[in-house]
Amino acid sequence: MQWLKTIGQYFILIKTVFTKPDRWKMFFRQLPKEMENLGVNSLGIVIIISIFIGAIMTIQTKLNTENPLLPRYSTGLVTRDTLLLEFSSTIMCLILAGKVGSNIASEIGTMRITEQIDALEIMGVNSANYLILPKIVAFVLLMPFLVIFSMGVGLLGGYMVAEFSDVITVTDYVYGIQYAFIPYYVTYAIVKSLVFAFIITSVAAFYGYYAYGGALEVGKASTKAVVNSSVLILLFNLILTNLMLV
Amino acid sequence: MIEVRNLSKSFDNKQVLKDISAVFENGKTNLIIGRSGSGKTVLMKSIIGLHRVDAGEILYDGRDLTKMRFRDIKELRKEVGMLFQGSALFDSLTVFENVMFPLEMFSSMTKKEMVERAEFCINRVNLTEAKDKYPSEISGGMQKRAAIARSIALNPKYLFCDEPNSGLDPQTSLVIDQLIKEITQEFDITTIINTHDMNSVMGIGDNIIFIHEGQKEWQGSKDEIFDCQNQNLNDFVFASDLYKKIKKAHNNNP
């Protein structure tokens, strides 16, 4: 029944997090710091992964669909839709669960074991609200931008393949990525990313907040945060896809 | 003044505190001493309200903590300062920002008044030169002093210190002890110190409470401790050869 206890504990924490901050001024001071730490500082990894995956996806699609019956624009179309529907929203969030999730869990976990959270509580501060709410709000606010950015950079990766290799022509690629564009796919990706951003930050904060002991426990909390948020992302990906696309 | 009456606390059917009553006076350094596992940390955490007690009363100048709702406890905590064993300074903030934190969070002062108050507290603990440094950039003793500055920023009525000398060399420990004593007297604070440092006991023990296996076995001052007949207390306080010799010398020349 440990899992039931964990779920209960998680929702109790979330209830404590979503209360009115002791001072809005302190919340709005933390918010831009968290936006920079969690969102802006993730741009590097988003750029690198998106550009390479976009490029590789273009090459793989082209090489595996060598069929005269398929239109030449299909490579661009498949690359675009894969990026929009799954890569930039789901796979990118799984990668960010590793980077951002471990960052949050280890930061809050270390604050717990070094009594910094106790210090906040003794002062009369709602520590869960003060520490976790700005992280959730910051990441949820920035995630749609990261996802859209990832889509753009991924498409650019494919374009670079077309431009600098003989795999596909630029004309075919550019035509493909514009062909039969469904704007709803972007909405779908953004909705998913908002849910995933909430999962990543709240689950990581939960494991960090309840870390007790020493460095070993903080490490374990960090691992649990990444593993469990990744599993939840996959589960909610299935649920949201069924709700929004089927 | 803080008064505890008939305090009892159990964990998993194991009674950790047994019917403890004591008075912690303001303007005095009140020490809780005892061996590891004796229940002194549980007693301190119960007084602060981090543990809910099974029975008894905890009176903060007549206000019973055990009967307070969560919201009232939160309000009371604004009158409380705490010095943690590991200082518990916020890593991401400088010394100055650490001291400013409680002021910005709870006081209704203007920005200028807050800065003045923070600078006063930092000056009071002689840390002016390190105010722009991060906790990781200063020594353990300086971290303790910064933590003291933060804990007195809101002019607390009650100050709790959990093993303030832990991890410090004897000389720095004396500086910290003296600082706590001076601040206690200067601002008329009710200070409760949880310690097993005998130098602190002998140096600043205005009111000492000895806890043994969850029970209060002795209460008195540092001057009375030499004449105490409690075997458990004597075994604890005069455990080292040095203190045995001091006690022997005292008894030979009372």
Would you write up a description of this structure?
The complex is a heterodimer of chains A (246) and B (254). Chain A is built from 9 helices and no strands. With 246 residues, chain A is mostly helical. Chain A has one domain. Chain B has 254 residues and is of the alpha/beta class. Chain B is 38% helix and 24% strand. Chain B is built from 9 helices and 10 strands. In chain B, the strands form 2 sheets. In chain B, strands 6-7-8-3-9-10 form a 6-stranded mixed beta sheet, with helices on both faces. The interface between A and B is medium-sized, with 16 and 22 residues.
Number of strands of chain B: 10
According to DSSP, the number of beta strands of chain A is 0
Fraction of residues in β-strands of chain A: under 5%
Order of neighbouring strands in the sheet with most strands of chain B: 6-7-8-3-9-10
The first-to-last residue Cα distance of chain B is 33 Å
- Per the principal axes of the C-alpha atoms, what is the gross shape of chain A? elongated
The number of domains of chain B is: 1
If helices are DSSP runs of H or I spanning 4 or more residues, what is the number of helices of chain B?
9
Oligomer: heterodimer
Could you estimate the helical fraction of the residues of chain B in percent?
25-40%
Task: Specify Rg of chain A, calculated over alpha carbons.
Answer: 21 Å
Mean pLDDT over the residues of chain A: 94
